[in-house]
Amino acid sequence: MLHELNFLFQTVNSCLAARSGTCSDCLQAGVGCAYCSEEVRAENQENEAINMNLQRSQVSPQEVSMTFLPGETREVDVNVFAPTKGPLDLYILMDFSNSMKDDLDNLKKMGNKLVVQEISSDYTIGFGKFVDKVIEPQTDMRPDKLKQPWPDSDSPFSFKNVIPLIKDVDSFTAELQKERISGNLDAPEGGFDAILQAAVCKEIGWREGSTHLLVFSTESAFHYEADGANVLAGILQRNDEACHLDENGAYIQATKQDYPSIPTLVRLLGNHNIIPIFAVTNYSYMYYLVKYFPIAEIGVLQEDSSNILEIMRDAFVVKLGEKLCMSWPPEVK
Ligand SMILES: [Ca+2]
Ligand SMILES: [Ca+2]
C-alpha cells in the first residue's frame, strides 16, 4: 500500500514534474511550488581557526556539512596555511638483504648530508631495516646460516626499528655506522611487514603536527597478503594491524601473522598521515603500487643507492610540493 501511495504522490507532484530550470519557472509551476536559496553554512562547531604562530600545515575549516539538491553545485572557501619550513619527520626504511650491501655502505657515507636540513629547521630523522620472515622457505634455517647468512653479516630478521626519530643527525650517522647487512633465501622481501610496523608503532616517534615521510628503499619485489600461505610457510593468521615490537625494536609476530595487503597499507599510512616515497631499483615492481596511494612518490634507485639523495630531494621539494598544493580544496562529501 505504501508503495502505491508513494507512486501516486510522485505522479501528481506538479512542482517536480515541471522540471523548472530557474527560480521564476519553479514559482510559476503551481501552488505550493517554492524555491528557497540558503547560504552555505558550516555546521560543525569544532573547526579550529588557522594559527599562523604554529609552524605547521593547517587548513580551515576542517569539516563542512551541507545539503545539496540533485545536481546543485556550491563553492566553499578553504584557507590553507603551509609554512615554508614546517616540522618534518623523515624515517628511512631500508631493505637489508645481501644485494643492498653496497647501498648501505653508501648511505653510511651520506648520513649527515641527508636533505632534511634543506627543507625544515625543525626535523627528526630515523632509520629502520627489514629482510623477511625468519621461517622456511623465505629464510635458510640451517644453524650456521641463521647465525650468519653471508660473510660479515647479521642474522636474518623481519623488521627492526634501529634509530627512532631523533633530532641529532650526528648521532643518527654514528648509529648507522654500526649496521651490517643480513640476508635470506627467496627473492621477494618482507617490506610490507616493516611498513605496517613503521606506521602504527608509537616507538617510531612520529610527532603530531609534523609532515611524516617514509622513504622505502629496496632492490626486490615484495611479499603481500596470502603469501604466508602461498609460499608454504604455513602462516594463515591475518595481520592484526597492531604494533608488535619488543624492547629492542624488533617485530616479533612476523612468523605468526601474514603479510598485510596493499589496501591495508594505504589505509594505515593515511590514518597516520604518512607519505611514502619509494626509492626502488626495479621500477616495474613498485610502479603499480604507487598509484594506489593518494599521495606517494617513486624514484629509480641506482644499484648502489648512490642517487638516493637526489630521489629524496626530488620527491620532497618538487613532486610532493606540487601534489600537496593540488590536493586542496579537499573533496566535498
Ligand atoms: Ca645494491
Ligand atoms: Ca625473501
CATH topology of the largest domain: Rossmann fold
Using only C-alpha atoms, the radius of gyration works out to 26 Å
What percentage of residues falls in helices of 4 or more residues? 25-40%
By CATH, the superfamily of the largest domain comes out as: von Willebrand factor, type A domain
- Helix-and-strand structural type: alpha/beta
> Strand order, biggest sheet?
5-4-3-6-7-8
The unique ligands bound to this protein are:
calcium ion
**Number of structural units classed as domains:** 2
Number of E-type strands: 8
CATH class of the largest domain: Alpha Beta
Q: Based on Cα principal axes, name the global outline.
A: elongated
CATH architecture of the largest domain: 3-Layer(aba) Sandwich
Q: Helices and strands, in N-to-C order?
A: HHHEEEHHEHEHHEHHEHEH
Averaging pLDDT over every residue, what do you get? 82
The helix tally amounts to: 12
Largest sheet, in brief, is:
6 strands, mixed
> Which stretches are poorly predicted, pLDDT < 50 over at least 5 residues?
1-10, 325-333
Could you explain the architecture of this structure?
By secondary structure, the chain is α/β, with parallel strands linked by helices. The protein has two domains: 1-37, no CATH class; 88-326, Rossmann fold. It has twelve helices and eight strands. The chain has helices spanning 2-12, 14-17, 23-27, 101-110, 116-119, 143-147, 169-177, 191-200, 227-230, 262-271, 283-290, 308-326, and strands at residues 58-60, 79-81, 88-95, 123-130, 159-166, 211-218, 274-280, 297-300. Strand 7 (274-280), helix 11 and strand 8 (297-300) form a beta-alpha-beta unit. Helix 8 packs parallel to helix 10 (262-271). The longest helix has 19 residues, at 308-326. Bound molecules: calcium ion (CA) (2 copies). One calcium ion (CA) is lined by residues 132, 138, 184, 186, 188-189. This is Integrin beta. GO terms for molecular function: integrin binding. Keywords: Cell adhesion, Disulfide bond, Glycoprotein, Integrin, Membrane, Transmembrane.
